[in-house]
Amino acid sequence: MSSRDNTRPRTTQRRIPGWLMRSLFGLSLLPVAAGCSSDKIAEPQHHMDGNGGGSAPIPSVAGGGSGVIPSQGGGGGTVVSAAGGSAGSVASASGGSSPATGGSGGQAPASGGSANGSCAFQCVDQCMEAGGTKKDGTCSGTQICCDGATTSPAANPFADLVPSAKDVGLLLANRFSKQSLSFKSVKDLPGDGYKVACEWYGSLRVAKYTNTQTLVDTLVTKFDPLKGDFVSAMTGGEKHVDRFIFGIVPLEIYIQTSKAEYLPLGAKVASAQDKSQVRNAIDDMFMMPILQVEAYRAVKAAPPPDGGEAMAAAYLNFMAPIMVDYLKVQKADGLFNHNDAQAQVEWGRGNGWFAAGMAEMLKDLPKSSPQYATIEDGYKRMMAGLLKVQHKDGLWYQVLNLPNDSKNWLETSGSAMFTYAMISGVRRGVLDAATYVPAVKNAWAALQKKISAQGDVSGICPGTYFHASAAEYEALSPITGDGHGQAPVLWAAMEILR
User: Fold this and answer.
1) How far is CA 72 from its chain centroid?
2) Domains of the chain
3) What pLDDT, on the 0 to 100 scale, is given for residue 366?
């Protein structure tokens, strides 16, 4: 993998946002990190739910370059856009009001508009998720001033799961909100710190969809001590997918609060991500896409000159071709090896990362994109493959394609990721409801049985590296209360509530 590609076609020039121009030269002086090499397996610094590397025969992504705004070159004041129910032992959580249960199709429709106050557009419950753009203006309660949101709610096929999703979501989100961080700056982010970002993202979304503003406030306050050196600590350290994913936290905070100081924290990190971070582990296909998709959502919502659809599109244009390259190693059964060279094993959570990443990408990637059809086809093939290996009790195995192996075990984190991905597809109309709703409901009931009254999820595979054999994955002992499992259960809950 090369770390730069100066021959990448430059198709469109755009004005650099003010917040970006002020730091452009600082970013351009950062050293370019070389692609991860296979020696990271011997002396790992990151969990392979994101660890270092390997040179698997996934077709290498051409070149390197940033491929996404902003250009790291710093010249000319321009930016080059990129080419191309409820069973189990869950205790009812307190707080929050009942979420709206409507919404499916495209981008979770908003729950209706109303003219109010100084908002000259629509006042809606959901804006960007409904395909709209945030606008300046005051609305009553928690509604958002928005232009272009879809306002025709459709029935939620998972409406009967909403009460349990609210209980589970708030239980886990409040649990996370009260936990202390093990670091005071992201420069000291542990190798598996990505799981904290994933849990934060899910908690913020649950807080939003349950209209629990006090929880949103608590989660924002929890992040604020990290703001000071966030960008320099992120971009000045190792350029690794497991670190950069933390940019989703300030981006989601901006999306929900519209407070301008959070936007550049995440957008600069997303813009500094380049193809040197491609490691050819299927875990990558959540770590990278979620950062780029969240950057797209946030920048799209930002008012000019710092945002807008045209400026935001470059994030998706950077990410979509990389995802298509990873899909080239999809197996005949629709699933993936952890790594085609060093780990030819259909590891559950590894596949879960990819499933969740495609679900997030398809929420925002325009159908007119050259890569949309390929990604949707890969996603649908994977969902169909997962149906065939789902256990009758609802969960999926640690090694997906070995259900009859006596040493194999039902694993929670991957199961929650698959559940989230299926819910997303059904609600967007990509997956057939008659086929997938029963599978989702079976999985959701099984997941709840893995949650204690304190909100600790059990049956989680610990963070791991590449292994040469299925037996080595099966030999890993399940753990409880770890973010690898807490986060995707939050995602499943948030998608039911959306």
Assistant:
1) 24
2) 13-87+159-497 (1.50.10.10), 110-152 (no CATH)
3) 96
